[in-house]
Design a protein that fits this description.
globular; 11 helices; 8-stranded parallel β-barrel; TIM Barrel; alpha/beta; binds phosphoenolpyruvate
Length: 257
Amino acid sequence: MRRPVVAGNWKMHGSRSANHALLTDLERGLKAEWPIDVLVFPPYVYLADAARMLEGGQIGLGAQDVCAEGGGAFTGQVSAAMLKDVGCRYVIVGHSERRRLFHEDDALVSRKFAAALQVGMTPVLCVGETLQEHEAHQTEDVVARQLDAVMAMHGAASFADAIVAYEPVWAIGTGRTATPQQAQTVHAYLRSRIAAQDANIGRHLRILYGGSVKGVNAGELFAMPDVDGGLVGGASLSADEFQQICAAAALRAAVRH
Ligand code: PEP
């Protein structure tokens, strides 16, 4: 049984007081018996603060990005070791906003993936096609290229301690969600590509769906056999909404058990 994951990417939102309120409400609403991993990804400057708040609790902490380099003269950058040092266990790599707005290519994303693994953190590798690619029926080609870049550099074995998130770019922050069947098709395809290299790792890999996941649509998405939870942007800023998504993931886990 793959344990579902619900991950909240806060993007560039929050303040010390807003984060405090959000995490307090969130912790209060989560049920200890839910067999799911709940993760939050605040902006860098709030990570240490969040780590203190979350210590000993149910919610795991991650960063939204990491430098591919281990340390040195890289002004403005933050290494994987530093993230781990302040309490992060997870890091998002290759989010479409990083790829598009900050020109990160597959090679750089692969190096970031490895940087996280090297210090014992779990990378959450994001893949997904743009609207133009979607309409040109290139979805599988695009996600295969993004996934294969990492596999070629680090091998399928590197996915034993990783999470993959399928995030169609046209669904991120748009209110337009992939249908459960669309998500399932891509998830099954991603899993099969890894399984072709290593059946066991493919079977156990957790693949999240991201793109306008909300309380109202999480249940039908998570009911799909290869959808192991969600990477959630906008809806992770509301404790209520995020809890509804977590409840849907917990229900999925119960049904599968
Ligand atoms: C994201 O930021 O990764 C995301 C999926 O955002 P949203 O849920 O707002 O579409």
